[in-house]
Amino acid sequence: MMSSRFIRNVRLGIKTLLLHKMRSILTMLGMVFGVGAVIAMLAVGEGASKQALDQIRRLGSQNIIINSQKPIGQAASGSMQVRMNIYGLLYDDLARIEQSFSTIERTVPAKLIRGQGRVGGRTLELRLVGTTPNWFELVSRELLTGRVMTELDVESTASVVVLTEHGARKLLVGKTTIGSKVLINQGYFTVIGVIKSESTQSGTMQTPDQEIDAYIPLNVAIERFGDLAVTRSSGSRSRELVELHQLIVQVDSIENVESTAAGIERMLSMFHPKGDYRMSVPLALLRQAEATQRTFNIVLGSIAGISLLIGGIGIMNIMLASVTERTREIGVRRAIGARRKQIIGQFLIETVVLSVTGGFIGIGIGILIPWLITMFADMPTVVTLWSVLLSVVISIGVGVIFGMYPAMRAANLDPIVALRHE
Amino acid sequence: MTEAAAQNPDSNHVIELHEVWKTYRMGSQDVHALAGVSLTIERGSFWAISGASGSGKSTMLNLLGCLDRPTQGRYALEGQDIALTSDDELSDLRLKHLGFVFQSFNLIPQLTVQENIELPLFYQGVDSAIAAKRAQAIAERVGLSDRLGHRPTELSGGQQQRVAIARALSNNPSVLLADEPTGNLDTATGDSIMELLTELHEQGKTIMMVTHEPEIADYAQFQLVMRDGKIESITENPRFAMAGA
Question: Which residues from A are below 8 Å from B95, CB to CB?
């Protein structure tokens, strides 16, 4: 009974609004753009933050990454032609860190050497990664064939190499993969396995692995290639002596990441006064990104709030005009026997129909715009369900809040005065 | 038997006014729109209220229509004193016992003829199928059964007033209150509306009509003339007196 009357009220409300189509459409525009802007902006923000957060997560939120870094303005020893730079993480640093922190789950040292792989007539620029079996547990990538490095390979200083899918495709076309010999920087290595790589070059964040990687045991790398790297560029040679290029520390739990990072930082700064290393903590970056996202959401929320406020005021304005225009109708309804709250109900329903219709059109626009952005600007966007649901709730809320005053005005009219209104 | 009679079978008095005063404050002066009016309206009677402007006839109609409360005195509609009723209760009284016909028809433009007629039933919460049936029956009674789907603006003045009368009748009220029902109509159309009201009176409806035109007032059974907030005279129409004798 009640619900059928409600439905009739809604139908009547729609009918009344359709009497002035243009006016109703213009009134709704505030809501349309308000809600549309909210959803679209949230979708763009969500897309951007998801991308950033994904990149950070790929680095591992339990990890601390320390890279060797050439100090700026370091005096080079030797002649002008032959520069020698000595910097970076030491094997001792690795040992010290491993011994000093009980919160460390595992450490992954990496020695990065530029090299060239050759199989038959094929060559490929490689990044030779001298590391330990821990690498494959920390940077877990899908094993495509064979096996990854083991402690046994380390102990026996085996000249084995794990290639990436990319490297295997370039070097080993039409050959048996496992057991093939690859000539790397004048040394032969036996391929024991192929893994996938997940290198992304976009953005500032990079994954620890690259698609041109070739993984060999760290001790083999030291034995074969030493710590000295010579790079030739435009006639001059520069020589660098770096023991470890990278050290990834995995902490046992997320709660301990920040304290461990601080401890490592203190320790390293003691032994490396020149600051020839750089630490990055993905968790801190993640926290930072989340904080940025929160700020962004607050800004969006404020913009949304203001636009919805303006939309609501627009609706209220029109409803006040409508109440004045329909004073006679209100008088008649009251004379017939409508109670005040029935008048309130009638006008509230009209306002809510306006705001919700505007809201739904806004949702449509808010979904369409991110889609267009993704289509034409190739930016990731994510329209979240909660933003849509929130918009529906807000639309109803705006209708009720901004419809209440005009409806009360209508209901509180003296029927005698209202009937006499010209 | 009418609905109202069924509720109150003992009383033949639909309306009772006893020493009713309605006082407005204008600046520092009290203006008595009604100054001690006593009146009893019997069920099935047809009254015409007339008087110069400012005589209190509009105030009288508003009061009778439960749109207003007396400042002093007693007004009972169907035996119920309205002095202490709340706004909602007044609404309910109007919804249950009263039907209004206005000079300017006052149909709701966005509603069809049928929806206009159904309006009191809508507020009573009558099931829409039953309401539709009743609206159709009443439309037939006022001669508008072929106009149910039309909008008020598509009708002539006389037709609009018929719709208004049908709307006033749809809740089967104890009293039909008409405020200058022919004021916006030409003479011929006005006469046909008066014939309709006469017909309703003959069918037993109690009608209170405000008019300033003597020839319209002549349709009524009793002519009540007001002056300065008081009843100046009540005369029974000799036609009815003779018919009654």
Answer: 336-338
